[in-house]
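This follows on from our talk about sequence and fold. Can you supply me with one protein entry, sequence and fold together? Could you add the entry underneath, on a fresh line?
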Amino acid sequence: MTGSGASFRLDNRTALVTGANAGLGSAFALALARAGADIVAVGRKPPTETAAGVTAVGRRLEFVEADLAEMNPADIVTRALGKFDGVDILVNNAGIIRRQDALDLDEQTWDEVMNVNLKAVFFLSQAVARQLVARGRPGKIINVASMLSFQGGVRVASYTASKSGLAGLTKLLANEWAPHRINVNAIAPGYFVTDNTTALRADAKRNAEIVGRIPAGRWGEPEDLAGAAVFLASPASDYVHGVILPVDGGWLAR
């Protein structure tokens, strides 16, 4: 029923969300659970609060402990399939950032960021797509991009490179996997209230500069991502492929 509320439901679907223990990842997991999905939470720490929220809306959460910098993504999917019959939705949320002048950036730091933010995303997406194709099932892959998928930033060379690469990878995978009924899209959050932005928000000058540029006039709250996540995970977006959707309060429009 195109255009109906039913097209936004995720009943009988399982979503794998990386970095779901806090912040934006927790918001993604809770939004998908409220829409009817069960959750596989992947990360280094048990997602205690997220699990409580998922359970409270009557859905099931299973935790797969993994360090995306070290573990084979195919093994993560295999472990997820040991808990559920299949993975229908993947949210590649986990990411790291390192701030350093480009003149001083070392190869190890570069590789650490690229391995988590880009390499792990590709191979986890590949593993999820392979089981979808094998099952003959449609699926949704949502990458978490960034304002630095569009802009250059400063002192975050490896992060900008990874998120710019992620935008290109999203489009490539959308092209290749659309015939398999797998939609690959991305959400690009703007400035959000998370642990990673605590220092920026505490700096009165920088906080005023940032809010002054955002047409919405405020920082984003993790819950502001819920609608975009459910849309891109649901049948409502079946004809949407390769989009990088900014959820930024108008930051890029400014």
Remarks:
- The beta strands are 14-18, 38-43, 61-65, 89-92, 139-144, 182-189, 244-247.
- The helical segments are 23-34, 48-56, 73-81, 107-135, 157-177, 198-202, 204-213, 226-233.
